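Chain A, query sequence.
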Amino acid sequence: MKNLLIFLFAITSVLNSALANANYGFESGLGAEWQIGGTTGTQSANSWNPNGVGVSVVTGVTNYSPGGGKTWNITPYGTYMASIQGGGLAFDQITSGLGLSGVENTAIKNMLTYQSQNGGGGNPTPTTGSYMKREITLQAGQTYTMAWQYLSTDYTPFNDGSIMSLVHSTDGNITPTLNNKQQRYSLLGFTNPGTGNYATGSYGATGWQVATFTVPVSGTYVLGFTSFNLGDTALSPILLVDEVQGTTALNGQTFTPVNPNPGSDAPPPPSPSVPTAVYNSGISQNVWITNHYPTSNNSPAGEDASKAFDNDPDTKYLNFDKKNAGVTVKLNVGKVITGFTLTTANDFPGRDPTSYKLYASNDGVTWTLVGEGNLSLTDSRKTTSSMISVTNTNPYVYYYIFFPTTKAGEGCGLNCDSMQIAEITFYYQSDSTATSTATGSGAVSNPSDLCCGGVSTPFNANSGFTSRAGVFSASVNADNRVIIEQIGNFNQVTVVQHGSRNYSELHVNGSNNTSTINQTSTGSGTVNYIEATLSGNSNTTSLTQTGTGGAKGIYLIGTNGANNVTVEQTDSGNHYAEINLAGGSKTVNLTQQGNANHMAKIELTGGATSITATQSGSTQQFYSIQHNCATASCSAISVTQGQ
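Chain A, predicted structure.
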């Protein structure tokens, strides 16, 4: 028995999961959240220079050579990160703009002088730079993080630097703990050795570091970052900021982040990030799978969906649905899945999937597409693929993967009767602290290949349309009204209707009958309605409605087996089709096309059924398919939507 119900329905540590999706990773640019002090501009990834544009959002640092034979390549965690370089704002204006007091301004300058006089060298007087800041809501006792990296465009002894700050929005007496020190600011990267909390040397970088902070009182705070020159206004340093650390390479080699300066209380660089696998409960630690929700239970005993996550290549998940077979898994805690591997099963390479789609959700109902693409699995058995990366920056509890296609075609026996996979192994990065929790009722509704602004609940026929159709069917003065009752076998009937109101009623009782109804009309007030009932075997029925404007509706009920139904609704106007078929094997081809709202409801019971449904146009497209297959050899369901 197979139950398939498809409904269309209408950033990570980002400090931590409580603040996710609030543009701490700059995926929405600076937005309305971040305020700028100094200048702002556009900086491309491959056109960096020592001067800078102030504050900008960038996609990376590509092949930048500030000097000293060093070429840097730096990427963000997601697609974007913020950059602060140059800008011309006086340092006193910077500290004031960040909310720091005059006393704190003096304390910073005194520390820079002390470091300069005790081995750091260089002119300790801060001159100009830029800053950015934003309000955040923090909870007392919770640790928050942000990633940053300092890149020097100058050489020793000409020092430059960077600072971050965290101040309460209304109470200057509340002092957070910032980078392990109880104060409202923290020195970050500097150029000269022994200065700031992290030093780079000439034309150097700190690598990605992680700033940590906690607050003693819950409330609204202002988080800020700045970079600035010391002693001059040339060769401005670069401060990069992101929600989670990205990657850094020096002269083509992975760059290891620098350690804090000797005697500093600042946190050490994060441990190297490694992909961490997720398996069933009792196999993986920290994060594991608690539940499996397959697209159907059309699997042999011992080859259900859970076997794809048991870290055992000798077991497998096999589904006779073949096309679009897949599974939703629920994690014990939401994580940022960044990729997965697939392990081929023990036999029949034709069953291997050749494409995938991966969705994610925190409530099991509302889904986000995080990855899709083609697959090229080896014909070798029990072999694991290379990592298949997806672009995901948010933690989710539910992940749904399905496979639209497989290697083999049709009619090749056991080699192409199903989809099978030995292992589906999801991975998250070990250094990612972002988590989420499950929301919603706990019910899970697997998505299908969805688009075009739908809803997550089933729909009924448009009430206005059915009311008009009811009045029309009862009218003795209908423009074109045809009622046909076909009894017996091998009969053929063709109905063609033109006019503003076309109504056809067809009742077939017998076998091997062919029925064709074509309705055509033009105008915004037109109505086309077809109602058909089929009882018998091997009947072929074609129902077509065309024309501009108005409403087109088809309602069809059929029983017994081997019936072939084709429904076409095209051109503008509203399209509604409801098809209910029971009995043996049958084929349904549905096309709704044109600049219109499309709604299709298909309910099928009995033997194997092949469904092909296509909706295309520029407005809303909804479909609901209920397929209760009484045999293990159900045929494919294919749904296509889009313009």
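Residues 1-21, 449-465, 629-634 have pLDDT under 50 and may be disordered. Residues 10 and 46 are 39 Å apart (CA to CA).
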